[in-house]
Amino acid sequence: MPASHHQTMRALAHNNAWANHRLLAACAGLSQAEFAAPRTGFFPSIQATLNHILVIDRFYVDALEGGTLGPAAWAERIPCPTLAGLRPAQAAVDRRLIAWVEGCGDAGLDGIVTVHRGQRVQRERADRLLLHLFQHDIHHRGQVHAMLSGTPVAPPQLDEFFPAEEAPLRAGDFAELGWSETTVWGA
Q1: How does pLDDT run across 74-103, given as a tens digit for each residue?
Q2: Measured between alpha carbons, how far is 91 from 73 in angstroms, rounded to an integer?
Q3: In principle, which of 62, 80, 118, 174 could form an S-S bond with 67, CB 3.0–4.6 Å?
Q4: Rounded distance, CA 67 to CA 65, Å?
Q5: Per-residue 3-state assignment (H helix, E strand, C coil) for the chain
Q6: Does residue 26 have a pLDDT over 80?
Q7: How far apart are CA 92 and CA 79, in angstroms?
Q8: Mean pLDDT on 19-45
């Protein structure tokens, strides 16, 4: 039986959190100097790129939750200068996103989200906003993945979330996240 629209978005939200978890866990092998070192990318360091993901996630998750945070979300471009601060902050916003998707159902995905952008208010379907957010995060995680290639830390595998034969490889990550296959896919 094909997955419903809601089940697909649930899986994407979990995949997003899992990829953030794996990437940040890999970055834990960097020194603070390596984490903040200038690198080639849209943002000038691994630190800046990962903080950008956090900032934008906070912006859109707040909008999904009905908040009005708006541009105040990016008032501080690097709210978490250390990985020790960034990991729990990203995990917290990832949990909020999963909780929102879990609670919305198919009808909620068709609902309109109000996004406060300072001088204007944008109204967007929730499913379209989610797809934008997931793509945004994939895009910038890819940049960090490439930046890691210039460090002693091997870039982690980020695109093997779904195949059943990979379940044993995910088991440790899922245990750390408090998940199971059923958490992601349902019964």
Answers
A1: 999 999 999 999 999 999 999 999 999 999
A2: 17
A3: 62
A4: 6
A5: CCCCHHHHHHHHHHHHHHHHHHHHHHHCCCCHHHHHCCCCCCCCCHHHHHHHHHHHHHHHHHHHCCCCCHHHHHCCCCCCCCHHHHHHHHHHHHHHHHHHHHHHHHHHHCCEEEEECCCCEEEEEHHHHHHHHHHHHHHHHHHHHHHHCCCCCCCCCCCCCCCHHHHHHHHHHHHHHCCCHHHHHCC
A6: yes
A7: 14
A8: 96
Nearest to 51 by CA among 81, 31, 14: 81
| Phi and psi torsions of 108, nearest 5° | -65, -30
Whose structure tokens read 């999904």? 64
Going by C-alpha positions, the residue among 54, 68, 61, 76 that lies closest to residue 144 is 54
Query: Within a 10 A sphere around the Cβ of 179, how many other Cβ atoms?
Result: 17
Q: How is residue 103 written in tokens?
A: 């609670």
* Selection from 175, 177, 21 nearest residue 87 by Cα: 21
What distance separates the 2 farthest-apart alpha carbons in the chain?
50
